[in-house]
Amino acid sequence: PYYCPREAQRLREMTKLQFDDYVDSLQADGFTYHDAGMIWGARFVSPNGIFATANQSAPNGEAISRHIVFMTDGQLVTRQNLYGRYGIEFWDRRVTDNGSASQQSQNHAARFQAACRAARNENVSVWVVAFGTELTQNLIDCATPGRAYEASNSAALSEAFKEIAEKIAALRLTA
Description:
The protein is α/β, with parallel strands linked by helices. It has six helices and five strands. The longest helix is centred in the middle third of the chain and has 21 residues, at 101-121.
C-alpha cells in the first residue's frame, strides 16, 4: 500500500466554502512525517528557493512578516515498507544506509529539526501546535522559543490559534 497526502497549496484567498471543501477532503491515513510538512511550509514562505519571486514583498510593497504555523495531530511515525516521498525506505535506502526502522525515525526527526532551523534562520517565526497529541521535545525544539502549544480539544485549539493570531498582529504593529 501507499499513502499520498493531498497536494500542498500556497496561501491564497478562499471563500469559507472553498476552505471547508478542502479541509473536508483531507483524510488521515496514519503515519506522520513531520519533516515533509515542515520542508514544504518553509519552501512556500522562503525568500529564497523555488518560490522566491512570490516572496519578495507583500502585495502592498511592504516587507513580509514570515510565519509558519505547524500543526500536527500525531507523533512522528514512519514505516519502512510503505511507498512514500522517499520511495520504499527499506529498499531504497534514501533515509538510512541499512533500512533500520529505529534509525529511520531518528533520521526523519533530524530532517524535521534541520527544516525548522533553516526556516528560523530565514527570519521565519515557527509556531507549533500539537492537537490531540503530546507536545514532545522534538516539536518544542522546532518552534521559535515560546511558540509551542498543546491543545487537547477543539476549544483549546481555538484558544491557541486566537493567541497566535494576537501575537502575530502585535508583532506586525511593533515591527
